[in-house]
Structure formats: C-alpha cells, structure tokens
Design goal:
Layout (H helix, E strand, L loop, with lengths): L1 H13 L2 E6 L18 H4 L2 H4 L2 H6 L1 H17 L4 H9 L5 E6 L5 H5 L4 E3 L2 E8 L5 E2 L18 E5 L8 H12 L3 E5 L10 H8 L3 E5 L12 E3 L3 H15 L4
Parallel strand pairs: 1-2, 1-7, 2-3, 7-8, 8-9
Antiparallel strand pairs: 4-5, 4-6
Helix pairs in contact: 1-10, 6-10, 8-9
Bound molecules: ligand BV8 and zinc ion.
Length: 248
C-alpha cells in the first residue's frame, strides 16, 4: 500500500487541479449505512419502493418516515477522518472540487468548501406544489407533512428517474474534464449519470485513483486502486503529501 500511496502523492505534488468524487462509503465510518453493502439501506428497503417520486405520492408517510430516520442518523453522526482529510487537502491546490453523491452534509460539516452535491441534500425540503422551502430543524416527522398551500413537502434529493440539478452536474463535469488527479472514494459507481464523473476525468487524461475496500466497475479503469477504508487511507495520503511538500 505504501508504494501505491507514494505513487499517488507523486501525482498530487505536480497537480494543479484535483477532483474527489465520493459516495456513501466515505460516510460509512461515521456510522451512516451505505446503500448496497450487506447491511446497506437498500437491503431492507427497495429503491423503487422509496427513492422515487411515484412511490412518494403512493406512500408519502413511509417515504417521509424513511427520510426522517436518515436525517436523524445524520444529525447524530460526525464527519470521519476521511472527510477531514479531504477538507484539509482543499487548501493545497489551485483548484480542488468535491463532487458527492451523498446527501448527508458531512463534507460541509468537515469544512470542505467547493462541493457539488449531485443528488441534493437531505437538510433541504420543499413543497411539491408551490416549491416553498422548509427547514425541518430537529423535527423528524413519521408521516407526510403538508405546506400551508396544501402541497406535500418532500426532501430536496434526486430520486430515480429525476434529473440532477443542472448547475451542480455541469460544474462537476467541467471540473472532472479539467483535473490532473481524480479520486473515486467509497462508491460502487453504478448510479448514473453521477458515475460518469470519474470516467470523464480518466478520458480527459486525469490520473484516476479508486479508494474502496471492494472492487467496482471502475477498478479496471483506475491507474491506482487503494483497497481499504477511506477513513484510514485518505489521512495516509495527506500526511505523505505534506511530508513530501515539507509541510510537516
Ligand atoms: C436520471 C438520492 C435522467 C436519494 C439516489 C444512464 C444515464 C442516466 C441515467 C441512468 C443510466 N442508467 C441507468 C439510469 C437510471 C438511474 C440509475 O443510475 N440506475 C442505476 C441503479 C442502474 N439513474 C437515475 O435515475 C438518475 N436520474 O438519470 O435522470 C433521466 C430523467 C428521466 C428519465 C430518464 C433519465 C438519478 C439517480 C439518483 C438516484 N438517487 N439517492 C437518497 O439518497 O435517498 S441513488 C443512491 O445511490 C445514493 O445517491 C448514492 O449515493 C448513490 C450511489 O451509491 P453509492 O454512493 O455508490 O453507495 P453504495 O452503497 O452503492 O456503495 C458504497 C461503496 O462504498 C461500496 O463500493 C463499498 O465497497 C464502499 N465502502 C464501504 N465502506 C467503505 C467504502 N469505501 C471506502 N471506505 C469505507 N469505509
Ligand atoms: Zn406549498
């Protein structure tokens, strides 16, 4: 692993622009369940039953309760060493972009500034009729909630079959196509179009690094695969980088 980390750091030392593409795995060590791991969320609940608009209209109580349950977890957990390492790395590069599929707000809480949230953010909720935004604070409704106009209130997340927020996705694609090093951290890389991000980076000549305990569809395309937990590997990369830059 150390040899591989040194190889990654060599690329980082000369890099002007870095993109870190993350999925649920980067939050796993914070205690946020992933989607497709054995104890993942989808094992108990099927995406078609929950993370899509028609399911919400069919069963607003169940979907509202599921998102409240997840918001509660996200309010109880903290960013982990992987989030903090990514946040610290941001200041060492001319351009540093976090592109996350996660809706858990942990990158922002760890101090990352330049973030594209491709699948929205569970802290934001809005009325499907008049689009008024609601801050639910630390309330966790276990059944559907309605706006004063009578419309249903939904989480501001991207469900299956829904378009990604345009400027978030366009900004992420632009960053991916112009970066020197791209990390793909804690994602099974099966959900599109988000999963195009590391592919565009690689196709545009970036050095692609995957950090994941398990192989994924992206592994064969990566220049380096660091097999392990992001909460352990990212701090190792950061300290080796600082050592080689004489920052330690
Ligand atoms: C859309 C948000 C246009 C809500 C989610 C090609 C192009 C375009 C679309 C498609 C396409 N092919 C198929 C589609 C349709 C679909 C899709 O991709 N389906 C897949 C499943 C086949 N895509 C869509 O519908 C997208 N919209 O295309 O719009 C359109 C519009 C109308 C008509 C047609 C097209 C919208 C997709 C967004 C769906 N929303 N969630 C919520 O979170 O509740 S998806 C969900 O999956 C999450 O966002 C999650 O982030 C995302 C990806 O999962 P991962 O983050 O990768 O998590 P996972 O559990 O899978 O993996 C975790 C990884 O971590 C594992 O590899 C594990 O080994 C690793 N790990 C574990 N522990 C650690 C670790 N790694 C490091 N350290 C550890 N400690
Ligand atoms: Zn309304």
């Amino acid at each position: 692993m150390t040899e591989l980390i040194k190889k990654v750091v060599e690329k980082l030392i000369e890099a002007k622009s870095v993109v870190v593409f993350t999925g649920a795995g980067v939050s796993a060590e914070s205690g946020v369940p992933t989607f497709r791991d054995k104890d993942g969320l989808w094992q108990k609940l099927k995406p078609e039953e929950l993370a899509n608009f028609n399911a919400f209209l069919r069963n607003p109580d169940l979907v509202t309760e599921w998102y409240s349950h997840r918001r509660k977890i996200m309010h109880e957990v903290k960013p982990n060493a992987g989030h903090y390492a990514i946040a610290e790395m941001e200041k060492y590069f001319e351009r540093f972009t976090v592109v996350t599929q996660n809706i858990d707000n942990l990158h922002r809480r760890a101090g990352s500034k330049n973030i594209f949230e491709l699948h929205g953010n569970i802290e934001r909720n809005y009325c499907i009729k008049c689009k008024k935004f609601y801050d639910l604070g630390d309330t966790y409704p276990d059944k559907a909630i309605y706006c004063e106009c009578g419309g249903l209130i939904r989480p501001d997340v991207v469900w299956f079959g829904e378009f990604l927020p345009e400027d978030e996705y366009d900004g992420a694609v632009k960053a991916a196509k112009s970066c020197d090093v791209c990390f793909s951290v804690g994602t099974s890389a099966v959900v599109f179009p988000a999963a195009y991000i590391p592919i565009y980076a690689k196709q545009s000549g970036a050095f692609l690094v995957e950090i994941n305990p398990n192989p994924t569809d992206l592994s064969r395309m990566a220049d380096v695969v660091l097999q392990g937990k992001s909460g352990e590997i990212l701090p190792l990369i950061l300290s080796e980088f600082k050592k080689q830059k004489g920052l330690l």
